Amino acid sequence: MSRQLTIHAADGYPLGAERHDPPGPERGHIVMAGAAAVPQGFYRRFAEYAATLGYTVTTFDYRGVGRSAPPTLRGFDADFLDWGQLDLAAVVRACAGGGVPLLLVGHSFAGNAFGMLPNHHLVDAVYLFGTGTGWHGFMPPPEQWRVRFLWHVLAPLLVRRHGYLAWRRFGLGEDLPLGVYRQWKRWCRRPRFLLDDPGLTSVALNFAHVTTPIMAVNAIDDRWAPPVSRDAFMSGYSGAPWRGADIDHLALGHMGYFRERGRPLWDAALEWFERLPTRTRLSVD
């Protein structure tokens, strides 16, 4: 069973969310944090599946995307830091304290956002898919050229014309606020993404303070976030017990983790949660 709800960010901004409830006793509460430009509906299959196995799952849209978007993005003020420090943080706060472990499953940008949270300590464990830096140097040559064309030719033209990154018509995902576009483009020039931004030393320090167990899974055919890209970024979680896993037996790309062919990975994620030291709290009496 699912129901729509509104979660208010720390600054009061309303976020469209959806909660999937298990049919029986609750094993844990999962926050499903998505990739940039991907609406929460993309993760419905995973949310419904995890719910059948006893997990409450909350999905949501970052401000400016999907059900959290204003009537127009022209003049709308939002960036990646808002998505992490205000939006994801609010969802974590709203889902915590239910008497069961609070878990986070993240896709792509969600792994970048987790270290921004002022309340990361509320999360018991994190399982990431496709997190990386977005730096073209880690991508295979054909994708490097495509990404450079995107950032230096197509995106600037779209932003100049519309006032925001209006790339939905090209099948590149949801349209994005101007602030998100500017940070994304700037950080993708750096091998460790936002961690190499000299103006964000306090944010990088927050990453180092994270102690939550993290598993980061990347497909070897993920052209946007291959394993080497993951390892470069995850080094910022220097205080966390994290480890990576490379997937070479499934054709996934960057989006296939949450399509039907990625279902075996969902089982692996849920089994990993149950094997953690919090296992006894995950078990249903």
Structure in words:
This protein has 285 residues and is of the alpha/beta class. An 8-stranded mixed sheet has the order 1-2-4-3-5-6-7-8. It contains 9 helices and 8 strands. 34% of the residues lie in helices and 17% in strands. The chain has a single domain, classed as Rossmann fold (3-Layer(aba) Sandwich).
> pLDDT average, as an integer?
95
Outline: globular
Number of strands: 8
What are the secondary-structure elements, in order, as H or E? EEEHEHEHEHHHEHEHH
CA-CA gap between termini: 22 Å
CATH architectural grouping: 3-Layer(aba) Sandwich
CATH topology, anyone?
Rossmann fold
Can you tell me the residue ranges where pLDDT is under 50 for at least 5 consecutive residues? 279-285
Number of domain modules: 1
SSE class: alpha/beta
Q: What share of residues is helical?
A: 25-40%
Summarize the structure in short:
The chain has helices at residues 44-52, 80-95, 109-114, 141-162, 178-187, 201-208, 227-234, 263-275, 279-282; strands spanning 2-8, 14-20, 28-33, 55-60, 102-107, 125-129, 214-219, 242-247.
Name its key features.
285 residues, alpha/beta, eight-stranded mixed beta sheet, 9 helices, 34% helix, disordered C terminus
Secondary-structure blueprint:
Layout: E1 2-8, E2 14-20, E3 28-33, H1 44-52, E4 55-60, H2 80-95, E5 102-107, H3 109-114, E6 125-129, H4 141-162, H5 178-187, H6 201-208, E7 214-219, H7 227-234, E8 242-247, H8 263-275, H9 279-282
Parallel strand pairs: 3-4, 3-5, 5-6, 6-7, 7-8
Antiparallel strand pairs: 1-2, 2-4
